[in-house]
Design a protein that fits this description.
It is a single chain. The model has no long low-confidence stretch (mean pLDDT 77). The protein is built from 3 helices and no strands. With 112 residues, the chain is mainly alpha-helical. It has one domain. Helix 1 runs antiparallel to helix 3. The relative contact order is 0.07. The radius of gyration is 27 Å and the shape is rod-shaped. The protein is 92% helix and 0% strand.
Length: 112
């Protein structure tokens, strides 16, 4: 009885399963990266918009803005960051909608 053939057959089937598992793991990693990116994006928008509004209000107070030009600079920086975050919020919504539509189309294709 030759046992080497049985061992080789087991390794060959394991190699195929390992390859399929590696491909599945790569797609899972990409999905995790996309969801992490969305979470960080939304967290920065949720924390950044109120923070920049509050910062601009504080730096534009009369007694601060009239005494030094750094207060004006910091207020304008807060307003600029606020505008950027609003733009990013709109962009994130569009990307999320596009990804949802893409996954729905892929699900319909897979079901056919």
């Amino acid at each position: 009885m030759n046992l080497s053939r049985l061992v080789q057959d087991d390794n060959a089937s394991f190699g195929i399963n390992e390859t399929e598992h590696h491909q599945h793991q790569q797609s899972g990693d990409f999905t995790n990266f996309i969801s992490l990116r969305e979470v960080v994006g939304y967290a920065s928008v949720v924390l950044g918009i109120p923070g920049n509004i509050l910062s601009a209000i504080i730096w534009l107070r009369i007694h601060l803005a009239s005494k030094n030009s750094s207060a004006i600079f910091l207020a304008m920086l807060a307003i600029n960051d606020f505008a950027y975050l609003l733009f990013q919020c709109i962009l994130l919504q569009r990307v999320s909608i596009a990804l949802a539509m893409q996954s729905a189309v892929l699900a319909m294709i897979d079901s056919v």
